[in-house]
Design a protein that fits this description.
This protein has 985 residues and is of the alpha+beta class. The chain has 43 helices and 21 strands.
């Protein structure tokens, strides 16, 4: 009976992060579960009356579920496997009946034939003849391209597609794929002649090798056939000798091209020090087999290598142990990988008789398999592999104790000796830089003709994926300023210009002396020799590592919470605010690998910027200095800095933050600091810094605010007036009280107002903020802007509300006063402004109950509603039935979070009523969940998390399928939030 898989291995099967998150939320919905042998099964309660029957065949793995999902595996299969991995599925004596039928059918379908198929020699020979004919046509085409000149050749997509299609007809798909990559390369790179000539030379060399296929060694013959695209059936690969080892999963990368998903898994043998590459394909969805361990784990197993001169690709064989994480890497073997040139190139191209043996046949049996420890050793390992197989495009390298460096000249990794390797253009592994923080790490990458492509890093005892973020504009190398005889001749064409082999590197010139003399092919073969010579002879650069990031002594965010946060940030989840509200009191620091994602989110989500940067901490501060878009965030990394130097010399955001922290700690000191520097600040700075005083403004701030009323900048005067308005005993308030009494008369019965504002206004009135802002308020009378109405609103907004209570009575009576139609709206708008500014719940309740005659009524009613006591708000919302759902949705944002239990039950029942209505009126307009998406979204964010069970129960009682799914999703969201909060201590 199979041992349960680790949870990480199950998670690797998920087609996407949302499926895995949904699977975790189904743990309490299972019954009739069991497992036996290779089978795991169970029934999961879903949105309908019948449960979903779910079966997993671990030998594939393969999955069967009665749910309508098109994903494979679906969330139910993932959830079942997660239960099994946690030991919550009991072994069974017999397979359940509902699972046995599918398992029997699958076993019959996948049964291994009694006799293995043997290749028909006649068919194989026919294919070789067809491939040979196609490659000869290709060679003629290649010669024509170089003979007429690359500059004059047809570089359109159609031209390359035509020759690629011919290669498909000739059953050489590997060659066709290489040709189809060229149009994009020519369109996106400024130096396209160099890589195009390199690719043409590579293809010509492949054609030449195919002509001599029978003369090549078995290993090299296998490599040539693989690069051309001859089939290599899995059964023939499994016939190869096995290599048993503790295989460590060092890197995983998945890609998608026209719905074809490809996963590449790099393995490293702990004892043999051999690399292996597993390649899996899936169409339509990334449903890959769970063969190798997940990243950072290892297992004792057998591999079958594909035959080749530099064997790398392999098939996973028999497993001899369970997965287990590794926290160390094996030491380098005593015998390092030998250095090698390219022994096969000269012996393949041109005249075979003359070229044979022009380079030494000294390639190692298994090139490039040493555990590289330095940049030099990595280059030697690559050279050895290239010497054995000159057509390889990349080779895995493990670089120990290297530091990534980013400069204006590009990205590099530097080892302890100062030797540096450049990264491929366009690679921007900010997560690798974040993991390093200027400290040495072990990096896994692929060494390519363009440079290093990082894959993962080993740091603090774990493997970390470091996939590069897309560059804002993909780098394109500029053409070299140095003259290049081969490229110049290829551009002009050998019909116009001959090459001079003497200008090539000496070893290439010596080998080229034995090549054919036809100019076009001489150029291609010389280019192939030079390219392989250059790639195998790459030497390191020199660079210095940057100063490392300072330490951050705060507690590390728990691993489960870090994974959750990464998913929330990637999806821009609506639950982020709640996560930060729960996490902020703990003052965690994020794992280093998360710093780049935190900075990227901080750049775009300004509302969460402060907690994001706080979580990123010192590593985020260090990382931000290297990124041109994150550099502007440096000014906001001020949560731990209270030095007076920040106030004197810091950037504007730093100074605002410094003043705000001082204001919270010592309001008088903050006020004194601002007053002392007031005369030297710019107008914009005065406005921004004065706004900081809004938090806890008191009469002690009045002198400074009165000074600000005389400022020459209108924005400063408006802010000062707004800050003085909430102070009922200030001189400003007294001036406004006098003006209100003089300009607005109350009749004797206290039921009517007569309004007579002066015109023009004197300088003292304008100083206090009453100006001709009619355009801003959009009041009109008799078809023209009403300046007086705008002045009235400003006066009423700045007048203490106690004046109107004394003049008109209690607020609920005052709002029924009679006033000319012209002034009714500005009067009420001014009262609303005053109620919100002065935080007066009595006036807010009266204005809310009597309506607000304003063009922004919805938002302002919500703001007034938020001033009411919590109990009053809840009572009002409970009185809103199904006929008032729009009002309910508009006011719910002012309810406390999470919603109190009575309000939560009320909302759930209202939604259930809509579901029952939808079932009774199938297809009725406005009855489906889509019509109530905003209310469902609000419920997912604000319902108490313990309401998940009640919501799931309602989902079972829904007769409308759409509503059942909506409630099911709501229950999933609530469970997701519950798990999210439980992951934080």
């Amino acid at each position: 009976m199979n041992a349960p898989w680790p949870e990480e291995r199950v998670g690797a099967l998920a087609p996407d992060a949302s499926s895995l998150a949904a699977a975790r939320n189904l743990a309490d919905r299972w019954r009739d579960t069991g497992y036996r042998g290779e089978a795991v099964w169970g029934r999961c309660r879903g949105g309908g009356p019948e449960p979903y029957d779910t079966i997993a065949d671990l030998s594939g793995p393969a999955y069967q579920c009665t749910c309508p999902s098109r994903k494979s595996p679906c969330k139910h299969a993932l959830s079942l496997l997660l239960l099994w991995s946690r030991g919550e599925v009991a072994p069974a004596a017999e397979v359940a009946e509902f699972a046995a039928e599918w398992l029997t059918w699958r076993a019959a379908r996948t049964a291994t034939p009694a006799t293995a198929r043997t290749a028909n020699p006649a068919t194989a020979e026919q294919r070789r003849v067809r491939v040979t004919a196609g490659l000869e046509e290709l060679d003629i085409w290649l010669g024509d391209q170089v003979r007429t000149g690359l500059a004059q050749a047809d570089r359109s997509y159609q031209a390359f597609e035509a020759i690629a299609a011919r290669m498909v007809d000739a059953q050489a798909p590997g060659v066709a794929g290489a040709l189809r990559r060229l149009p994009l390369l020519m369109a996106t790179r400024a130096d396209w002649p160099e890589p195009v000539l390199r690719e043409y030379a590579r293809l010509h060399l492949l054609v030449a090798a195919h002509r001599r296929l029978d003369d090549l060694s078995p290993a090299l013959r296998a490599s040539v056939r693989t690069h051309i695209g001859y089939p290599n059936p899995a059964e023939s690969v499994r016939a190869e000798p096995v290599v048993r080892d503790q295989w460590m999963t060092m890197g995983v990368r998945s890609t998608e091209d026209d719905r074809l998903y490809t996963r590449r898994t790099w393995l490293y043998g702990r004892r043999t020090h051999r690399w292996a590459l597993l390649v899996d394909h899936a169409f339509g969805a990334p449903a890959f087999p769970a063969t190798a361990p997940v990243l950072g784990s290892m297992a004792e197993a057998e591999l079958h290598y594909y035959p080749g001169a530099a064997p790398l690709r392999a098939l996973w064989g028999e497993r001899h142990g369970v997965d287990e994480p590794f926290t160390t890497l094996p030491g380098a073997p005593r015998d390092s990988a030998p250095t090698a040139t390219s022994p096969h190139v000269a012996g393949i191209g041109g005249d075979a008789a003359r070229a044979q043996g022009t380079a030494g046949e000294t390639a190692p049996t298994r090139p490039g398999n040493a555990a590289e420890s330095t940049v030099r050793a990595a280059l030697e390992a690559h050279a050895a592999a290239l010497g054995a197989d000159p057509w390889i495009r990349s080779w895995p390298v493990l670089l120990r104790d290297v530091v990534p460096v980013v400069t204006d000249a590009g990205w590099q990794v530097v080892d302890e000796q100062g030797a540096a390797l450049p990264l491929a253009p366009g690679e921007q592994p900010w997560s690798l830089l974040a993991v390093s923080g200027g400290h040495p790490v072990t990096a896994l990458g692929e060494w390519t003709v363009d440079g290093l492509v990082p894959i993962s890093a080993f740091a603090v005892g774990e493997m970390i994926d470091v996939e590069s973020e897309p560059a804002p504009h993909r780098d394109s190398p500029a053409p070299s300023a140095e003259p290049d005889d081969l490229i110049s001749t290829a551009l002009l064409g050998t019909a116009r210009r001959a090459i001079d082999p003497a200008r090539l590197p000496a070893p290439v010139t010596a080998a080229a002396a034995h090549l054919r003399t036809e100019p076009a092919f001489l150029l291609l073969e010389s280019a192939a020799l030079r390219d392989t010579f250059a790639r195998g002879g790459v030497t390191s650069r020199e660079a210095a590592a940057p100063p490392p990031a300072p330490d951050d002594d705060r507690a590390l965010l728990p691993r489960a919470a870090a994974r959750r946060l990464a998913d929330l940030l990637r999806d821009r989840s609506r639950f982020l605010s709640e996560w930060f509200e729960a996490a902020t009191p703990h003052d965690f620091r994020a794992p280093d690998a998360l710093a780049a994602q935190l900075l990227d989110s901080a750049s775009s989500q300004t509302g969460l910027r402060e907690p994001l940067l706080r979580l990123a901490g010192e590593r985020g501060r260090w990382l931000a200095q290297w990124h041109p878009e994150w550099r502007e965030l440096l000014a906001e990394f001020v949560f731990d800095t209270d030095s007076d130097e920040i106030w004197r010399y810091g950037a504007a955001p730093q100074r605002r933050a410094w003043l705000a922290r001082l204001r919270a700690r010592d309001a008088g000191a903050a006020r004194a600091a601002l007053a002392a520097s007031w005369g030297t600040e710019t107008g914009q700075a005065r406005a921004e810094l004065l706004a900081v005083l809004a938090d806890g403004v008191t009469t002690a701030d009045e002198p400074l605010l009165e000074t600000a009323l005389d400022d020459r900048r209108a924005e400063v005067r408006r802010i000062a007036a707004g800050l003085l308005a909430p102070l009922p005993d200030s001189a400003f308030a007294q001036r406004m009280l006098r003006r209100a009494a003089d300009w607005i008369a109350v009749e004797a019965d206290r039921t009517r107002l007569r309004i007579a504002l002066p015109d023009p206004l004197d300088a003292d009135v304008r100083r206090d903020g009453i100006t001709d802002r009619a355009v801003e308020f959009s009041y009109r009378w008799n078809g023209v802007p009403d300046v007086t109405a705008g002045r009235l609103r400003q006066l009423v907004a700045a007048t203490p509300l106690r004046h109107w209570t004394a003049a008109l009575g209690a607020p609920e009576r005052a709002v029924r006063v009679t006033v000319d139609d012209r002034f009714r709206q500005p009067l009420f708008d001014g009262w609303v402004d005053a109620a919100l500014t002065q935080r007066d719940p009595a006036w807010a309740a009266a204005l809310f109950a009597n309506g607000v005659p304003s063009d922004t009524a919805l938002l302002r009613r919500r703001e007034l509603f938020a001033l009411l006591p919590v109990d009053e708000r809840v009572r009002h919302l409970l009185r809103l039935d199904g006929a008032w759902l729009s009002e309910l949705e508009a006011l719910l944002p002012a309810a406390p979070h999470p919603w109190p239990q009575p309000l939560a039950q009320h909302v759930i029942l209202l939604l259930f009523e809509r579901a029952r209505t939808a079932a009774q009126r199938a297809g009725g307009h406005g009855t489906g969940p889509a019509a109530h998406r905003s209310l469902l979204t609000a419920a997912s964010v604000h319902l108490p998390v313990d309401a998940a069970a009640a919501v799931a129960s309602i989902a079972q009682r829904c007769d409308d399928v759409a509503w059942a799914r909506a409630f099911d999703q709501l229950a999933t969201d609530l469970t997701h939030r519950s798990d999210m909060l439980e992951e934080l201590p």
